[in-house]
Amino acid sequence: EKPRHPVAMASALRLMPSTATRLRFRPRLSFSTAASLFSPPSKAVLYDQHGPPDQVLRVEDVPPVELGERGVCVKMLAAPINPSDINRVQGVYPVRPPLPAAVAGYEGVAQVHAVGPAVTRPLSPGDWVIPSPPSFGTWQTYIVKPEDVWHKVRDDVPVEYAATVTVNPLTALRMLQDFVKLKPGDAVVQNGSTSIVGQCVIQLAKVQGIRTINIIRDRPGSEEAKEKLKQLGADEVFTKSQLDVKNVKSLLGALPEPALGFNCVGGNAASLILKLLR
Ligand SMILES: NC(=O)c1ccc[n+]([C@@H]2O[C@H](COP(=O)([O-])OP(=O)(O)OC[C@H]3O[C@@H](n4cnc5c(N)ncnc54)[C@H](OP(=O)(O)O)[C@@H]3O)[C@@H](O)[C@H]2O)c1
């Protein structure tokens, strides 16, 4: 499906591609009794110890889980692989799930499969929901969590966008709002501009009339990447090597010196941000 929104999102790990449709369905539970409801058997991406993801992650069957009175069982439609997901598995991210048997993944979009008898939120089978705030364990096929974890979202947006709406776009928004009071006409500079956060910065800045100066790394395809970022609304895009000049600010032309800089990379790429700042 051709995305209808300008936000270009990371490719999502599609756990259940065949269910990522606009069709509503009311699936049957795998089993239930008068007193209890259970999720269907699930598959999860788990780890027992921290380390390189390709060495410590495994896919495992998870037995059915009881919903309880206020539990909601959802079927995951798509969940992204964010850098922080990798860092959590590696054990280098400050907030991470307890071991052993930690289920990876932190955001994603799901479809309500069944609700417990005392659930009061207006959630029905077929609704699309996201965990908000994001919560651990989205790399699994069925999840049971309390009703207050799940927030209903529109189901007429591309599944990849719904799956990635919490972590990166909101980070971009908060970075633009929380540090410097920017007004239309001001400029910001960032490196790692092809990242999803970077692409969100470009688009959110554009709608506020804030100019963006973007730095990307030198690599095959950097010309296409420049073009793509400009189509998203970037005012200027430089590869790192283009900024290897004596007076880097001379390259800004008519753009104002940036009032705020975002560093996603470190090292020399971070010094370039500093050199360009107002
Ligand atoms: N709340 C938070 O604190 C928060 C939330 C979200 C994200 N983040 C952080 O924001 C950053 C971007 O996240 P994302 O999900 O948007 O990332 P992403 O889409 O995975 O993009 C990764 C970016 O890093 C660049 N990159 C990779 N290796 C590089 C290298 N060796 N040298 C220079 N650039 C390199 C990539 O450039 P190419 O296109 O050239 O490959 C791309 O721009 C990450 O550091 C992430 O942890 C923080």
Automatic annotation (TrEMBL):
InterPro entries: ADH-like_N, ER, GroES-like_sf, Mito_Enoyl-ACP_Reductase, NAD(P)-bd_dom_sf
Gene Ontology MF: a single term: enoyl-[acyl-carrier-protein] reductase (NADPH) activity
Protein name: enoyl-[acyl-carrier-protein] reductase
Species this protein is from: Aegilops tauschii subsp. strangulata (Goatgrass)
Family classification: Belongs to the zinc-containing alcohol dehydrogenase family. Quinone oxidoreductase subfamily.
UniProt keyword list: Fatty acid biosynthesis, Fatty acid metabolism, Lipid biosynthesis, Lipid metabolism, Mitochondrion, NADP, Oxidoreductase, Transit peptide
Transmembrane segments: none
Record-level GO BP terms: fatty acid biosynthetic process
